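hey so i finally got around to running both of the ones u sent me last week. sorry it took forever, my laptop kept dying halfway thru and i had to restart like 3 times lol. anyway pasting them below in the order u listed, first the sequence line then the structure token line for each. didnt double check formatting much so if smth looks off just lmk and ill redo it

first one:
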Amino acid sequence: MRCVEFVGPGRLEWRNAPEPKLEASTDALVRPFVVATCDLDHAIISGAVNVPGPFAFGHEGIAEVVAVGAAVSKFRVGDVVSVPFQVSCGSCASCRAGRTAHCIGVERLSMYGLGPLSGRDWGGFLSDLVRVPFADHMLIAVPEDVDPRAVASLSDNIVDGWRLVAPQLAADPGAKVLIVGGDSVSLYATAVALALGAASVDYVGGGTHQQEVARRLGAAVIEGPVPERLGPYPITVNATSERKCLHCAIRSTGPDGACTSAGIFFGDDPTMPLMEMYTKGIRFQTGRVHARDVMPAALKLVEERKILPELITAETADWNDSVEALVSHKAKLVITRPREFA
């Protein structure tokens, strides 16, 4: 089969790879037909994050089921599904507790499309076929009235945005929210916060495109460089890997407030304003999203048209143009090809 492989900074290639097979009765084989870039993909392709290749690329997408094992009961050939980027078994103690990012039934950090960052090579979504273990648990059916292109990032970035604000607003309904923005995750968080009843969402940082989309979503954009502090806000979000943005989010968090960071800080750890955090008693959380656990809640917001993820898509491309589009993309890119069973 053909797949797109990341070879090195600025270099991706179509290559031939062994076709995956059903290895267990609980497996499914799926054919991705809509794939989106994750915010991390741009950093990998540009060389900002040093990840050695080659490895199969792509970890956000929508697929059709093309084969199922004998023990798969919830899905059949032709079903349209979203596949979480993290692999989880659904039955271990961590999965039963909703901590699917830390499944102990598979190798730690098992993920699609991220090569050496993963616990093992699970392949990538820019491929003709992908094997999905534990299919009844892993796969999420996409409703017929939801455009697959709109939920291409449900696998990762949409749910990453959801977890930055949804639990926090459940604990503090109607709170004001500050989002220190970067790329698409910050915009999904903006959309979710407004959909879930935030009193207001202020957005600072990001580029011109991100600020324009934030305004379109209903946020108030604070222009200019990211300052040392704003607020105070009961809920703050850092969606970048920049120290100044992290500090702004932390310092802008009000007493007993919640600050959540989706930033991945490769290399040296950033310093933290611990004394200010201590005196205000804020709750700071970082870490990976438990994607499979929260995908249904995020998908429901899309199905009810409370959030419109398509507004955040910046670029589109045909499947056959994947390599060129990936190398040149600057913001959320969605790549499509026709469905096989449409």
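and the second one:
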Amino acid sequence: MKLDASLPPIALRQLPGLAQAAEAAGFDGLWSTETQHDPFLPLALAAEHTQRISVGTAVAIAFARSPTVLAHTAWDLAEQSGGRFILGLGTQVKAHVERRFGMPWPASPVKALREHVQVIRTLWQTWQQGGRPNVRGEYYQVTLMTPFFSPGPQPHPVIPIFIAGVNPGLAHLAGEAADGFLVHPYHSQRYLREVVQPAIVKGAASAGRRSDSVALSVTAIVATTSDEEQWARGQIAFYASTPSYRPVMDLHGWGDTADELRGLSQRGAWAEMGECITQEMLSSFAVLAPEQDLPEALAERYAGRADRLGLYLPFMPGSRDAFWRRLITRMREIAC
């Protein structure tokens, strides 16, 4: 199980030192998010200033961009990183795609993302091997690529694509067409076991693939103190208020709480939402353990299930350095 770090939302000038520190700490991967900053620019710097660590987006919002634009960006980062780049794509939700990005929301997000991935891979093949793209889908028609716009072949043309999601439709698509699935931090062991993994297996079978060819990358919400537990309640409540994520609460019989949280969010009562998360809910969606016991608690929950593991806690050198050193050292010892 590879151990990954998440980039905090920081200025680009801080990236070289942070990436070097993450690699020196022993992390296997470094992921950027699309929240307050562009997800790709930090990775160009991270790749330039490291030698071993993989770099990836977790996630870049697919429907905010043309698949051709994504194909070009990923192609350049794969070449510049020496083959260490992972393209992680997410759909976001309708309100954000339409009102934050100003882009249309597809009638079928799963079908649109499938075509998105198809276009990207078709262009990569075209650039590497020549020829013309010929994708004629419901959402994307890409049939033109002249030498003037083709970057041409490169030494690292096989670029992993991970997709993110919560519901079984996107997990099924990951099994069918992706190299990995980025598990949303808002998950439980039961949801992974009963919903996510079976959907990946079915998706892989539908495409004649082995399900173990799809890497499972998990980000875990953790809490080691009472203050962190309160913070975790707020994060869980925020995610649980999202209508499209309701199936996670429904699986556990907590649909009424999801409705209550939705109502509070619509009123802007953010401070009250965490109070709706019971201890049972908290322990289902977060790993709760004293700091010295956290490695064992993480291994108990995810060993043999996740291929990559990161914490829902950005890595920042100079902040909790001893915590990260102990965590990585002990997780390595457990793995051995």
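quick thing i noticed on the 2nd:
The CA atoms of residues 128 and 153 lie 4 Å apart.
anyway thats it, ttyl
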